[in-house]
Amino acid sequence: xxxxxxxxxxxxxxxxxxxxxxxxxxxxxxxxxxxxxxxxxxxxxxxxxxxxxxxxxxxxxxxxxxxxxxxxxxxxxxxxxxxxxxxxxxxxxxxxxxxxxxxxxxxxxxxxxxxxxxxxxxxxxxxxxxxxxxxxxxxxxxxxxxxxxxxxxxxxxxxxxxxxxxxxxxxxxxxxxxxxxxxxxxxxxxxxxxxxxxxxxxxxxxxxxxxxxxxxxxxxxxxxx
Length: 225
Hints:
Number of helices: 6
Helix content: over 70%
Low-confidence stretches: 173-205
Radius of gyration: 63 Å
Strand content: under 5%
Order of helices and strands: HHHHHH
Shape: elongated
Largest sheet: none
Oligomer: single chain
Structural class: mainly alpha
């Protein structure tokens, strides 16, 4: 590569010199033409022609050398690429030999075993101990169901009592004034509602709003059932 570069530099110098010589001979030929010296002008043109042929030869040689230089540079680049790929393949081979499939399987097995051991320890730590271990889960579940049922019944009773319309008392007629004849005045109190006669049907689990209101009136008036 260096030799080709040196040769190109030498040919460049010769090319520049020939171009100057050609320009010089052309200028002399013009001078001889103006001086009517045809023979001298022809000699200058012949020499110019020989110089031009030599210039073409040098330029062709330069082209060949430049072509070889380009090819060599491409080959050097290809060789460098191949060497880099070869080094990469060698490194990959070493890494593959250092970590084969058996080692990978062994490492994965160790990881799985360790994970299982950690899970077992966590499960053991989560087991109840002492008095908590003696508790019956089924008994606790039944007690919880009973509490939920009692809470549901209480909510149903509250909802029924809230939804029942309030009983409207009938309007009492206004008392008519009468002359006092010495007779005792008739009672003006509202007649007390008597308890309803049982129908013989079995009592229901939850009393209706009317029954609850009747019991409240009886307790307020202190009437016997």
